[in-house]
Amino acid sequence: MTDFSGLVDGYRRFKANGWTQQRERWSKLATGQNPQLMVIACSDSRVDPTIIFDTSPGEIFMVRNVANMVPPFETSPGHHGVSAALEFAVTQLEVPEIVVLGHQSCGGCAAALTRRFEGAPVGQGGFIDDWMSLLDDARDRVIEEHGQGEAAVRALEWEAVKVSIANLRTFPCVPVREKAGKLRIHGAYFAVADGILHLLDEATGQFAPA
């Protein structure tokens, strides 16, 4: 497994090879960025959007967090990291497309389904419990239909994508751009075991292989 010294070794390989081969690109990126996509993905180490989508530096503006969640729009005091990133991508970079990317075997969704950290103090799961409460309503619907087995886990992972998309649209800057045809939102799901990407059809609510 890679440790910090492995990262430094990797950097040296990158500097000698990847950076040198794309030196012109890096020179242009040093003056600014103009990504055409924002991807909201999970922090999970197995799900790297730049690898899944085979992209180059500067092509994706990315936010990663537990279970690829977008909280609803709110103006309460606090540090709103996802909201700030979304606001920057949409109003400053003016990205024309946003992708919410869920994935198989999501630990955050599993925690939401089992309520593993319910009542845990901060520092021992309390932050996770609070964050995953974003899926409480979806969890109840999933359990009512699927119980708590494997089918429920997959269903909640799909629901996490849908909930995040719904929450995206609570931000005033999003629906106005969608209505004007300046912004499109996509849902996707990556199956780690077989490498298949599934895309969400919002009209039907179903995911199907790309």
UniProtKB/TrEMBL annotation:
Which molecular function terms from Gene Ontology are attached? carbonate dehydratase activity; zinc ion binding
Q: Matching Gene3D superfamilies, A to Z?
A: Carbonic anhydrase
- Broad enzyme group: lyase
EC number per UniProt: 4.2.1.1
Taken from the record, one Pfam family name reads Pro_CA
Q: Which domain of life is it from?
A: Bacteria
Q: Which CDD domains match?
A: beta_CA_cladeB
**Binding residues annotated for Zn(2+), in chain numbering:** 42, 44, 103, 106
- Keyword Nucleotide-binding on entry: no
Gene Ontology biological-process entries: carbon utilization
Q: What does this protein do?
A: Reversible hydration of carbon dioxide.
What family does this chain come from, according to its entry?
Answer: Belongs to the beta-class carbonic anhydrase family.
Q: What is this protein called?
A: Carbonic anhydrase
The organism encoding this protein is Rhizorhabdus dicambivorans
